[in-house]
Design brief:
Elements (H helix, E strand, L loop, with lengths): L1 H15 L2 H14 L3 H10 L6 H26 L4 H4 L18 H16 L1 H20 L5 H26 L7
Helix pairs in contact: 2-7, 3-4, 4-6, 4-8, 6-7, 6-8
Length: 178
């Protein structure tokens, strides 16, 4: 499987990679660093009372994602990154020091997008587009395998669903978004 995944990454490198994307993809991936883009979104939308539940749920989901994905699963699976297996001459970002599976950038992005979608589809739909861009940037930059991305997206959505259920039941004590 890993050989096929390296072929996918090499296809991106050989057929999609270009000067414009070499400039844009590190910026896009930086939006996923520590979930900072999504934390900023949560804080900004919290200014409106109708989005406070969504904001709180997003922040709880992002924290859960870091604990489950980055601290527990990454260290349990201990998967090497593609850039550790095949050294690239000109990496566009610093070589990450943590393990590869699941992609934390993808996990946090899909978790936040799913929560936004639950509370407001008009915010959620474009959020999934941003999440997909951040996820693709991780493969473009050769720091994640495709299965790291798929695993991160699925885990992010599962964490979002569980966070929504838990916050609705124990924090907000209702099932209706406000």
């Amino acid at each position: 499987m890993q050989e096929f995944e390296l072929e996918v990454l090499d296809f991106i490198k050989d057929h999609i990679k270009n000067g414009f994307l070499d400039t844009v993809m590190p910026i896009i991936t930086m939006c996923g660093n520590l979930g900072i883009f999504w934390v900023a979104v949560a804080l900004i939308i919290s200014a409106k009372a109708k989005y406070r539940r969504c904001s709180i749920t997003m922040l709880i989901g992002l924290i859960a994602g870091v604990l489950i994905g980055n601290l527990f699963i990454k260290n349990a699976v201990r998967r090497d990154r593609p850039c550790w297996i095949i050294e690239l001459q000109n990496m566009l970002i610093d070589n990450p020091q943590d393990f590869s599976f699941p992609s934390g950038h993808t996990l946090s992005s899909f978790c936040a997008a799913a929560i936004l979608f639950y509370y407001d589809k008009r915010l959620g739909i474009p959020s999934f587009g941003i999440a997909a861009l951040i996820a693709f940037s991780r493969m473009y930059l050769y720091v994640h395998f495709p299965t790291d991305i798929v695993g991160g997206a699925l885990l992010g959505i599962v964490i979002a669903c569980l966070t929504i259920k838990i916050t609705d039941k124990y924090i907000f004590k209702s099932k209706l978004p406000s």
